[in-house]
Amino acid sequence: MANLGTATVKVIPSASINIPRPGIKHSGATAANETSTELVPASGTLNRANIGDTVYNTTGTTIGIVTGLNYTGADITSLDTNVDFASGNTYEVYTSYVASLIPPAVIVGSLLEGVGTLTGSITSADSTDATNGVVTGATFTTSGSGTGGVINVTVSGNKVTIVTVTAIGSGYAVGDTLTVAVGVIGGSTALVITLDDEDITGDTADATQILANQGNGRIGIYSASAGAITGVDSNGNTFSYTAVAGATLPFFVSRINTIAGGMTALVGFVNND
């Protein structure tokens, strides 16, 4: 039967991200106090994940892509994405369809982007007389060869309380020190950060390049309810179609852009026979 699927996949509408291949690589809940685009699992590793994978926030019903892999030793312990996660959100990671097997350019040794990502790696003594406020784009020197990183430093109660990475740079390594001079933060004690495994991404890539390499899957769509659907078919053409309740679309798709309000979530399927 032409419309009988052998594997299913959740469909989350997106104006830019295609439906992934069926088959969950990783799933679970995010760690406590998680509030960023970094996917940190509450337990376990993410060793089957790859740059370019599709990631679902199934609590928020949002979709994104994996842009970076963060290592602790040999294990992938978190993922950089372009979708927001909060504490306890559930997630699923899938393999994406790709147009070319040649991966996008990967930056090695980049800093882990996000609010407070380097705070835990401060190794200098607490300052007691730094100037309160936020130093945006705080200049620093490094003991290694990394370049291009940008940090913001927050001083509260005359000591450094938050170090945020706003540009990841490249070429940083475990054990490198980043030093922010007293002339930048005030006071009498320079800020020293000693990078560890969790401060550096193993690999990262540009989201625009990843999306440009998306492939078009041949996904059948079942709709339990009637309503308007827009998207992209399996040949890359945009479409607008009014679904009939309890029926499949009469063509294959690669992406669902929008569904009418109140519609039941669509189910995607493929036939691997």
Sequence-ordered SSE layout with sheet pairings:
Layout: E1 7-10, E2 24-29, E3 35-39, E4 54-57, E5 62-72, E6 75-86, E7 90-94, E8 110-111, E9 133-138, E10 141-142, E11 147-156, E12 159-170, E13 177-180, H1 182-185, E14 191-194, E15 200-204, H2 207-212, E16 220-223, E17 227-233, E18 238-243, E19 247-248, E20 253-259, E21 267-270
Antiparallel strand pairs: 1-21, 2-7, 3-6, 4-5, 4-7, 5-6, 5-15, 8-15, 9-11, 10-13, 11-12, 13-14, 16-19, 16-21, 17-18, 17-20
Q: How does the major sheet shape up?
A: 8 strands, antiparallel
Specify Rg, calculated over alpha carbons: 22 Å
Report the structural category: mainly beta
H-E order: EEEEEEEEEEEEEHEEHEEEEEE
The count of domains is 3
Helix count from the secondary structure assignment:
2
Q: Poorly predicted ranges (pLDDT <50, ≥5 residues)? A: none
Distance between the termini: 10 Å
Shape: elongated
Query: Average pLDDT, to the nearest integer?
Result: 92
Strand count: 21
The protein's oligomeric status is single chain
Assign a percent range to the helix content.
under 10%
Q: Approximately what portion of the residues adopt beta-strand conformation? A: 35-45%
